[in-house]
Amino acid sequence: MSSVKAAFLDRDGVINIDHAYVHAPEEFQFIDGVFEGCRLLQKAGYLLIIATNQSGIGRGYYSETDFEKLCVWMKKRFADEGVLISDIFFCPHHPEKALGNYLQDCNCRKPKPGMLLAAQKKWDIDMKASLMVGDKQGDMQAALAAQVGRRILVGKDGLACPQPVAECTDVARNLLEAAKLID
């Protein structure tokens, strides 16, 4: 059995303010406390893995190359703050509002668990020992379907503590507060 545990993090609304279809560094605004929260999770032994729906790619608003450039920039900003983002998984698809090959009802788009299961396979993750931090019910549903042991729902853009949903195990205002819940 694997001893690797991961903190799966949604991006928009959890790491950065969700300005809708953020795809360039000049649009990216980190939520207060994100770096400190990630350092706490990292210190507790979690791999940090981002799992994010990116239907803006499928809708033609920006390209996978644009997204990859933003990811390189974002990972460097985290590294500058002493945080290692181990991996980023993304889903460019949408079942109704996408173009060409991106128009599909895939298993990777949250609330389905495909991104989390792909990370589990790649990194040999113990899902029961892992956690998900997300700002939407779909994040919690994906984590539950992937058998992630702890599912923390945070307020969108870190602004307010959300109302719990059936699939979450905890609620917190933001990623920093979520990280402080970890024993």
- Please count the beta strands (DSSP E, at least 2 residues each): 6
Helix and strand sequence? EHEHHEHEHEEH
Strand content: 15-25%
Mean model confidence by pLDDT: 96
Count of DSSP H/I helices: 6
Structurally, how many domains make up the residues?
A: 1
Helix content: 25-40%
CATH class: Alpha Beta
Unreliable runs, pLDDT <50, ≥5 residues?
Answer: none
Largest sheet: 6 strands, parallel
CATH fold group: Rossmann fold
Major sheet: arrangement of strands: 3-2-1-4-5-6
**CATH architectural type:** 3-Layer(aba) Sandwich
The computed structural class is alpha/beta
Task: Summarize the structure in short.
The chain has about 180 residues and is of the alpha/beta class. About 30% of the residues lie in helices and about 15% in strands.
